[in-house]
Amino acid sequence: MNIALIAHDKKKQKIIDFSIAYQHILKKHHLFATGTTGTMIMEATGLNVHLFQSGPLGGDQQIGAMIANQEMDMVIFFRDPLTAQPHEPDVSALMRLCDVHDIPLATNIAASEIFIRGLERGDLSWRNIVKSNRKKDKEK
């Protein structure tokens, strides 16, 4: 599965800790991240992460493009809802795209742990069905 890992500045240590704790699961998947977050995850875990631009510089939009093209299967985005973000419209658009395209979106550690445990058990195979149905719809 293709998994995006994103974190606002005040949540970066949490996503690093999460990645360390679950690297045995994450290493079996294709990981994508915004610039700083991805670099920090790679340094802490040794995981291979495809890096996009920093979120405010377009990284959120790059991940959004993958979502719109059905190339992303899950987004783990540790948001900081208590701090104003200069790129909030991009964040909102990313979340909206997840809803439109049925992409699981976890925005906190609790939901992320549920998702990662589902990955571990193989419970997210329904993503293949969604992708298949969307492909059939495009062909019509």
TrEMBL record:
Catalytic residues identified in the record: 60
Keyword Acyltransferase attributed: no
Protein's UniProt keywords contain Lyase: yes
Domain MGS-like: 1-140
Organism domain of life: Bacteria
Positions contributing to substrate binding: 8, 12, 34-37, 54-55, 87
EC number: 4.2.3.3
Entries under InterPro entries matching the protein: Methylgl_synth, Methylglyoxal_synth_AS, MGS-like_dom, MGS-like_dom_sf
A single Gene Ontology CC term: cytosol
One GO BP: methylglyoxal biosynthetic process
Gene Ontology MF, one: methylglyoxal synthase activity
CDD domains referenced in this protein's UniProt entry, alphabetically: MGS
Catalytic activity: dihydroxyacetone phosphate = methylglyoxal + phosphate
Broad class of enzyme this protein falls into: lyase
Keyword field: Lyase
Free-text function comment from the UniProt entry: Catalyzes the formation of methylglyoxal from dihydroxyacetone phosphate.
Family indicated by similarity: Belongs to the methylglyoxal synthase family.
Protein name from the UniProt record: Methylglyoxal synthase
Source organism of the structure: Virgibacillus halodenitrificans
